[in-house]
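During the no-cost extension, the postdoctoral fellow (Dr. R.K.) reprocessed legacy sequence entries with the updated structure-token encoder. One reprocessed record is reproduced below for audit purposes.
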Amino acid sequence: MRTIGLLLLFIAGTSIGICGANSAWADSPGQVWSFTTPFGILYGIIPRAEVDYPTTRPSGTIVVNTKERRLYYVLGGGKAIRYAIAVGMEGYGWSGVNTITAKREWPDWTPTPGERKRFPDLPAHMAGGKDNPLGARALYLGDTLYRIHGTNEPWKLGGGVSSGCIRMSNDDIIDLYNRAKIGATVIVQK
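Re-encoded structure tokens follow.
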């Protein structure tokens, strides 16, 4: 009976275009769709794509457009890879220029005192792994507390949900991590 229910949910989703939603709305801002079911959260993520991106910035530069909720990895030759992201919640967004000073796989996470004050149930420290909010990879920005990192809540991509960090799907942060070099310039635009 459960299998029939899942099959019906899949067929209904296909018939209203959910399975094709990623490509249909790839240029719209924010998250494509998500909803909660008795089986968990169903969601769609705007897929990364190589796009036209005329710029004078050198290849390897990362440009974060917080208004678009997109991150661009400059390839050069007028091209970039575009990724969907989540950004800082209201009051925690920022802009500026920095560099990648460290890269970590499955990073540990220590919430800041401000985060622990706002969310008292947070642990003092969490080892890296699949339940860690920093996800599969993290790129550390200068001597700030900000990072570009993965997430274990990909249905929140497209929103303003973090304490200032830039979140990406784990698949996308792994792709970016493999491309980005320590010392690369990161530009965060509002």
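Confidence is low (pLDDT under 50) at residues 4-29. The CA atoms of residues 140 and 147 lie 5 Å apart. The remaining legacy entries will be reprocessed before the final report is submitted.
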